Structures are given as structure tokens and as C-alpha cells.
Amino acid sequence: MEKEFQSIYDEIVDLMKSALNDSSHTYRTFSFASIDDKSPKVRTVVLRSFSIKDNYFEFHSDIRSPKLSELKKNKNFSALFYSSETKVQIRFSGKVKTLYNCSETEKRWEQVTPSSKRCYMGPYSPSESLNEYHPNIPENFQFNNPSDEESSAGYKNFVIIRCFFDRLDYLKLKYSGHSRCCFKFYENDIIAEWIAP
After folding, report:
1. Which helix (H) or strand (E) element contains residue 99?
2. In 5-55, which ranges are E strands?
3. Residues 180 and 195 sit within 8 Å (Cβ to Cβ)
4. Domain residue spans of the chain
């Protein structure tokens, strides 16, 4: 890879790794898009892991969420990370793999905070219509966290969405002229090229 592209590539890796270690980092949350039968669907999710070696990043979800049925039909995704401070936008695209009720989800579930585990214990499926407001957290845990034993009821709804990317698009906004390039990932190679902003 040419030096100028290697520098950008290294910057992207550093930004993603920093986001994992800093919950206030602008890339800790990102926009994730899937597609249903008729139109694109986008939502904000939380970055939970990143591997440049294996070309993937992950976030958590509820198996009852509509996005799971969308991704089952069409595994293609697009994800967007943007920092208003650095004016850097990074877009990933590729295909997802859903991890459910396996050794990896068991291990990850142990790392999920009790407060977050409450979100998987809700009586309603995400996006389900309600007759009146409900936070979708069990009433007895609205203001306190469940024990490990109590939160185990939420594990059946817990999934990891692993996003394998084969293309990465980098855009740096600058008054004197924006710069944009893309990286295409192949089995044993990465091809980088400049593209028009």
C-alpha cells in the first residue's frame, strides 16, 4: 500500500480502537443501515468490538428487533461513523453474521453491565406498537439493576451482530478541499484508491 494511503488506513484503525476504549468517543455510536423488502432502515447502535485483522466490527441487539428479520433476508449493510470535531467520515459496507445462543454470546453476556442487561428483559419486542407509554424495562428494575440470576432471563434475547466489511470509504472535510479515498478488501490484499469527494 502506498505511504499516503497507509497513513489514512492507520488513522482509521486508531480511531476505531480509541472508540472502543472511550465511551464518550464520537465513533462509539454509529449509524447502521439494513434494508427491508421496500426501503432502507437506519438506526444508531453502539460499537462493541473491532478487528482490522479479521475485517469486522460488532454491536449488540435484541433477537426480537425487526432488523434481525431484515438481515436474515438480506445480509448487506452500510455503517457510517462521523466526527464533527475532526470532520472525518468513515463508511463501511459488507455482510453481517448473527451470533445467537453460542459460546461467544455467553462470554459477551458476562461482560454486559447489569444496567444494559435490563434492555433485553423488556416484555415487548423492539418497535412493537403500544397502547400507552412503557419504557420496555421490567417495572421492578426501572430504578435498580437486576442480579446476575434475575438478568439471565434477558440472555435469550441477546445477539451479537458481526459486520464483515469488504469496503471502507474515508472522507476528510477541509475548507481548502475535501479528500476522499476508499479501501477494498480482498482475501489476501487491500486495494486503495482516491475517489472524488
Report:
1. strand 88-100
2. 29-35, 40-46, 49-51
3. yes
4. 3-115+152-194
Nearest Cα to 150, choosing from 141, 163, 162? 141
Q: What is the dihedral of CA 141, 147, 151, 153, to 10 degrees?
A: -100
Residue 24: partners with Cβ closer than 8 Å, 6 or more residues away: none
Rounded CA-CA distance 116/123 in Å is 15
The amino acid at residue 152 is S
Give the integer Cα–Cα distance in Å for 127 and 79: 21
The string of pLDDT tens digits covering residues 7-63 is 999 999 999 999 999 999 999 999 999 998 888 999 999 999 999 999 999 999 999
**Inter-CA distances, 119 with 27, 83, 146, 177, 183, Å:** 22, 27, 11, 44, 36
Residue 131 has pLDDT above 90, yes or no: yes
Its pTM stands at 0.93
The CATH architecture of the domain made up of 3-115+152-194 is Roll (2.30)
Distance between CA atoms of residues 54 and 159, nearest Å: 20
